[in-house]
Fold this sequence. Notes:
The strands form three sheets. Strands 5-7-8-10-9 form a five-stranded mixed β-sheet. Helix 2 (60-100) packs parallel to helix 3, helix 3 (113-158) packs antiparallel against helix 4 and helix 6 runs antiparallel to helix 7 (307-317). 16% of the residues are buried. It is 50% helix and 20% strand. By secondary structure, it is of the alpha+beta class. The chain is elongated. The chain starts with a helix and ends with a strand. Strand 9 and strand 10 (332-339) form a beta hairpin. Mean pLDDT is 79; it is low at 295-300. It is built from seven helices and ten strands.
Amino acid sequence: MPQIDAIVAGVASELGAERVQGLFAGALRDGARELWLRLRLADGAPVTLVLTVPGWMPSWSSIAVLAAQLAALLVVTWLAVRLATRPLSRLAEAADRFGQDLRAPALAESGPAEVTRAAVAFNAMRARVGAALDERLRILAAIAHDLRTPLTRMQLRSEMLPDAEMRERLQSDLAEMQGLVEEGIEYARTAHAAVEPERPVDLHALLDSLCFDYQDAGRRVHWSGKHETPLRTRPQALRRVVVNLVDNALRFGGEAEIELASESGEVIIAVRDRGPGIAPEDLERVLEPFVRLDDSRSRETGGAGLGLAIANELAGVLGGALTLRNREGGGLEARLALPAGA
């Protein structure tokens, strides 16, 4: 081994070659702990040198100091990361609030320069988005207002048509136009549903009132189930969601079944019908605005394709989720899941 040869050469150099009869390297012991060197002096006396390879043996005090230093380093690192990420957490919370409430308070513009710039940019974006949504509602309201007058005039003039069949068709078209305008305004107003304050709502009373209104109009709507605890939510927005789902069920199925239940910390309101259902690949797409499937394009079931989109938007405002699925035996189930603690 080169290391052994170097050690042998060093010993020979120190003792002097004229005093050494022979120099032999022994084998290593205990892994690399000892090296034996056998040599014979000029007088013939044998001498064995045992070289011990030094090892590192830390003391308990050194280990304790090292552990304390590592613990202190971990604590300081955790505090530094916490301080660095806290502004990001506040920004994320503000974004979540803004997604649910357009009138949520602005983000505090304080802290390090980078954090302050991010807060200023977020507040500016928040103001622009709010202004754009307000402008959208004003435009739709203005269009609806301006269309109402000519639609009324056309309705009055259609009454004077001598041809009864032509009069009926024209009035039906005018009613459809009026419905499209009203649906557009209702969809625009969903962005402002978060302004409505939350309060405890008796779901039994809400569903009773809704079903009685439909039954008084001769429609087949009934509900079952129970949820005894009042739900803290936005009642007008919740009622609009259920009404849109029931109207959709009545349009395609002729009647609607509402079931109220509690599952895994959620309040479930399911609206079911026995209509034609929806193709599986369209169950999510139909929740988007202005999506109309082929089966809904007739005069009897037509529309702007906003009923389910409005319900889906309002479900998000309420902190819940709306899902659709086909029923066994035919029909559709619209399932609104709301957090029980909302």
